[in-house]
Amino acid sequence: MTTSVTAKGRRGGVREGEPEPIPPGLWKMGGVLALGPVLALLDSTIVNVGIDSVGRDLHSSIGAVQWVATGYLLAISLTMPLSGWAAGRFGARRAWLASVVLFVLGSALCGLAWSTGSLIAFRVLQGVGGGMIQPLGQAIIIQAAGPSRIGRVMGTLMLPISLAPVLGPILGGLVLEHLDWRWMFLLNVPVGLLILLLAARWLPADEASDAPRPGLDVTGLLLLSPGLTGLLYGLSTIGDGGPAGWAALAAGTVLVVLYGGHALRTGRGGTRAPLIDLRLFARRGFTVATANSFLQGAALYSSMFLVPLYYQQVRHVGAVEAGLLLAPQALGTAVTAMLAARITDRLAPRPLVLIGIVCSLVGTLAFTRLGSGSEPAGWLIAGSLALRGAGMGIIAIPGLAAVYGSVERAQVPAAAGAVNVLNRVGGALGTAVLTLALQQAQHGRPDQPGAAFGQTFWWVLALSALAIAPACLYPNTRKDTAKDPA
């Protein structure tokens, strides 16, 4: 797909080769749409800090109250594949607003929960709304921005999304210190209502279309959503060693494979479009970018699980302090994402993505020395986290631009659902791999907890290195990027 450039004019024109300007209305739209996933990310990280307080107040075991977090994540995995269908059926704006309403309603009910069971049920409702906020928001902003402005818009919007996982534990600690745990959920209500008011003003109405509205792919829903739920639940629990995790993983794999056969048989377009159209993967740019997103999800989410755990188990810091110690990685991501955004729309993705992977690999090396005789100093760990984050920021923007630049405008909602699902599954897979690796390392070195973490970080290095393979298949010149080799 070619990058459109306005012809040079005497007034308000754009010189040939310069990117199109971004109007203020597009920035306002993007700001509102970024607030949705930020609210969902803050909520999930805040709640993780307060699980212990919830269990004590509701007189519940840790095993039962853990479903407050797990139920939310499973609900997200159930509803995320529906984002493409919801956008086509009801309009992306209406579907996004409905998702935010469900999230806010779930938050209010969570704050009023009277038992562990009711809290888990309301968290599931929250997850039903939260699962579609990010893919629908991405679809709206990408369709409005067009291929020539994707990089700059998405790069700027990465700033609040990058900082949310760091701010969550800090805000959670402050809420638990000064307020009741219920305020972890109730604070979402006024913020969510503000987002809805801004969205009603700044989000454009859905475009009218004479095309038939797609019907729900019920067979695909019954296969894919439980399949993804089984995969994510199984990957998150196989480290416990029980049979339930492996059974869920096996069942989820079978259902996802069956969905693949069903999706390829289902007619393209019309009223029988599959939840996620696997024919999108016939496009080289889309396949390469989603494969890279899957592997980056594995490397990023797994390391975000491992680093705070190291600080808490080995250095014995609290959850809030552990969140603060992760700040260099988030800041690195935010800064380089904005810098990458300035050049992504003018350069080919391959060199940028490879530079980002190299930064990520170098930033991981110091952690492989944990527990050794030459354990890195605190400043080196902070610098390494910043470098890892910088690499992730460089990778993310050209990757997103490649995903959405490789599909037609009408296919953007389906593409958004696919890339978000694969990124989440990659994160669950990476976390499961690291959990098993850490448990084996701790079993082999019970008296050297730091060394066990250092050994496990070699797996993080390997996960990051795997991303080199798809990165080498990105276009190497801007001319190649403009071609759609579907």
Supply the number of helical segments: 20
Quote the average pLDDT.
78
Shape: globular
Beta-strand content: under 5%
Task: Assign the CATH class of the largest domain.
Answer: Mainly Alpha
Low-pLDDT stretches: 1-14, 482-486
The CATH homologous superfamily of the largest domain corresponds to: MFS general substrate transporter like domains
H-E string: HHHHHHHHHHHHHHHHHHHH
Q: Report on the biggest sheet.
A: none
Count up the domains. Answer: 2
Overall number of strands: 0
N→C terminal distance: 11 Å
What is the correct CATH architecture of the largest domain?
Up-down Bundle
Proportion of helical residues: over 70%
What's the arrangement of secondary structure elements?
Elements: H1 24-57, H2 62-65, H3 67-79, H4 83-90, H5 92-111, H6 116-145, H7 150-178, H8 183-186, H9 188-202, H10 218-237, H11 243-265, H12 284-313, H13 319-325, H14 327-344, H15 349-365, H16 378-405, H17 412-444, H18 449-466, H19 468-471, H20 478-481
Describe the structure.
The chain has 486 residues and is an all-alpha fold. It has two domains: 23-205, MFS general substrate transporter like domains (Growth Hormone, Chain: A), CATH 1.20.1250.20; 276-486, Up-down Bundle (Growth Hormone, Chain: A). 74% of the residues lie in helices and 0% in strands. The chain has 20 helices and no strands. The protein has helices at residues 24-57, 62-65, 67-79, 83-90, 92-111, 116-145, 150-178, 183-186, 188-202, 218-237, 243-265, 284-313, 319-325, 327-344, 349-365, 378-405, 412-444, 449-466, 468-471, 478-481. The longest helix is centred in the first third of the chain and has 34 residues, at 24-57. The radius of gyration is 22 Å and the shape is globular. The relative contact order is 0.13. Residues 1-14 and 482-486 have low confidence and may be disordered.
